[in-house]
Amino acid sequence: MVKDECKTLLDALNKVSACYRHLVICAGGSSDSQNLREELKKTRQKAQNLAIANKAKLTTILKDKTISKDDRAEFERLWVVFSTCMEILEIDMRKALDLGQEFPLNLPTKHLIQTGMIGGTSAVAARAMSVQNMKYEEGNNIDTVDLNDLEQDINEIGEMMYEMEMKVNVLQWTVEAKQELGTELKSAASAGASSFGMRPMNEGTDKRLCDTNKVFAGAMFTAVLVFAIVLALCVVKFA
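Structure tokens predicted for Regulator of G-protein signaling 9-bindinG protein:
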């Protein structure tokens, strides 16, 4: 089914983009290396390939005038998610370019930031690439060749986003979400509470607790007020 194919492609793009962001965080840090730069390059290329596939499929569907209203609404939601993912990917690529230019690997006088992060990042890249072992190219001047390619890739991402807006007229602020605002946060909070053996309180329990707190606060205020009056009378009497 076309809808399932689009969701699968978009899910893959989100995962690879998330892995790329994780790798970018390590650039310029104490765990930076030639291997990390190669992982960034391969993961970026994987994300670009998925982005091209997503764009081609969603563009073709949304330009079709025969699809139903419900299907169009669903594909427009996927289009908004895809556009947002592309924007985040472009931001991370620009960050990788800035860090790569600021911290070249072939200049020993440029010290890397001691972030405290140690260990390899191959496992993250392998998850993004769906392979067990990452193989890297030897003797590649990553400081010049890949940074030039990265700059070109950023321009291509920008052109792709512009072309998307020209071919498909989807106004993001008109697309309605299927879930209520904050549903993901509530789900995450419930999951976190469950992991610690806690159960969320219902609204009735929450309200009773709020009322109890108000009564307690009122009693404390009254006690402080009475104490202040008694203290004032004592001062006046013994003055």
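Residues 191-201 have pLDDT under 50 and may be disordered.
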